[in-house]
Amino acid sequence: MRSMGRKIELLKIIAHPIRIQILEELTKGVKCVSDFEDFFEISQPNISQHLSLLRKDGIIDYYVDGRLRCYFLKDPIIPDLIKVLKNHYEEELPSPACCPVTKKGKYPGEGRH
Known about the structure:
Strand content: 5-15%
Distance between the termini: 37 Å
CATH class: Mainly Alpha
Mean pLDDT: 89
Pfam families: HTH_5
Low-confidence stretches: none
Largest sheet: 3 strands, antiparallel
GO molecular function, one term: DNA binding
Radius of gyration: 20 Å
Strand order of the largest sheet: 1-3-2
InterPro entries: ArsR-like_HTH, HTH_ArsR_DNA-bd_dom, HTH_MetalResp_TranReg, WH-like_DNA-bd_sf, WH_DNA-bd_sf
Number of domains: 1
Shape: elongated
Keywords: DNA-binding, Transcription, Transcription regulation
CATH architecture: Orthogonal Bundle
Order of helices and strands: HHEHHEEH
Organism: Candidatus Nitrobium versatile
Helix content: 40-55%
Structural class: alpha+beta
């Protein structure tokens, strides 16, 4: 089980567009390096670097089938994270009417960031 610190590290590791795409593909099933080469427009060594980083942290692993390395997900949190990232949120959460402690004040609205 991952501690909160390890979960934060996990987010740092997967926070790259290629790694997110790799993980998204792996949520669909086992993939070999050649499958990723067909999917991405980057070099095989670059794909291998991303796979190596994900494997080093225990997020994914592989088995050997002849000359092929076939990758699969190991970390059970990944499908949930991918699902959350794919959600489309149309609206922001509602603003509070006032301070929950003092019950006074008023949200200044848009334009203040």
